[in-house]
Amino acid sequence: MSAFEWMAWTLPTAIFFASIAALLLFMTILELLRPSVERRGWLPIATSRGDRLFISLLSAAYIHLAWLGLTDLPLWYGSLLALLWGGAVMRWA
Would you list the domain boundaries of the chain? Predict the structure, then answer.
């Protein structure tokens, strides 16, 4: 058995993990070129760009889980909601 044979590597799974890796690489390069400064938005804590990315990703996971558990609507709507939420957190939090 190969190392990854136990996992169902589908195209959507590969796209998801590649997107997260690309986002982390982009944020690393951005941090090296333009270091972020902590600021206070509508969250009750001062956050840097990386903190807001982490909060966005964690929130997106919870939004998707809640969407799957509470509605019968397609997950694409939950993904759109998570994307809008992540944009709001990155911009104004």
Answer: 1-35, 38-93
